[in-house]
C-alpha cells in the first residue's frame, strides 16, 4: 500500500501553514512534504509535524528569489557561493524537521548558457551530495515540465539519469514527479520498473490540470500504485496537486489508502 505524503504547500490551504499538519493528520495522512518551509521557524515546523504524528518526507532547498522568477540555484552560473550557503539553511531545517531527503532545484537558465550551466550543475550537485552525505541526507533532483516552469534547466527524467550516472554519488536520487514526467517524457511504468532503485521520492497529480490524481486523469494511478507495491517501493508518494475545491472534499480518491 503506498505511503501518501500530503503536500502542505498545495493542500489544506484553507488553514494557515502551521495548522495544516493537524488538518492532514485528521484526514489520515501519516506523512507530509513541504515545498519551502522557510517562512516558518524550523523548530515550530518540526514541532507541528511531530505533534501531528507526520513524517516530513521531503522539502526543497532554498530556491533563490522566487518572487523574481528564480527556481533554484544549482545550475545557475555565477551563483555558486549563494548555492553553497543555501545548503546550510536546508541542513538546519532537515535537522529540525527530521527529514532525510532534500530536493535541490536546478534553476531557470537561458538556453545560450546551458553548456556552462551543465558543468555548474554537476559541480554544485557533487558538492551538495558530499556535504549532505556527512549529515546522512539524500539529495534529490526533479525533472519539471517547461509548461509549468518555463526555462527550468532539468525537464526530462532521462536527463536526470544522465546526471546520476555522471556524478556516481550514493546519496543522489531522482524525485520522480509523475505529473511532470507524463508531460515531458511519458513511459511512466517503464521508467519506474527500470529505475526504482534510483528514485527516492514520487509525487502525483492529475494530468492534465494538476488536480486530484483521480479518474479524470489520463494516468491510471491505481495501476501505478499496485506496480509500486509489487516492485517493493519503500519511499513516499507526495500528493502535490491543486485541489479542485476543498482539500478534504477532494480526498475521495485516497479514501482506501488513508488510515482514519
Ligand atoms: O513539482 C513541483 O513543482 C515541485 O515538486 C517543486 O519542487 C518545485 O516547485
Ligand atoms: Mg513536484
Automatic annotation (TrEMBL):
Gene3D superfamilies: Divalent-metal-dependent TIM barrel enzymes. It comes from the Bacteria. The keyword Isomerase applies. The keyword Isomerase applies. InterPro entries: HPT_OtnI_isomerases, HyI-like, Sugar_Epim/Isomerase, Xyl_isomerase-like_sf, Xyl_isomerase-like_TIM-brl. One of its GO terms (molecular function) is hydroxypyruvate isomerase activity. Keywords: Isomerase, Pyruvate. The active site is at 142 (proton donor/acceptor), 240 (proton donor/acceptor). Residues 21-258 form the Xylose isomerase-like TIM barrel domain. GO terms for biological process: glyoxylate metabolic process. SUPFAM superfamilies: Xylose isomerase-like (SSF51658). Belongs to the hyi family. This is Hydroxypyruvate isomerase.
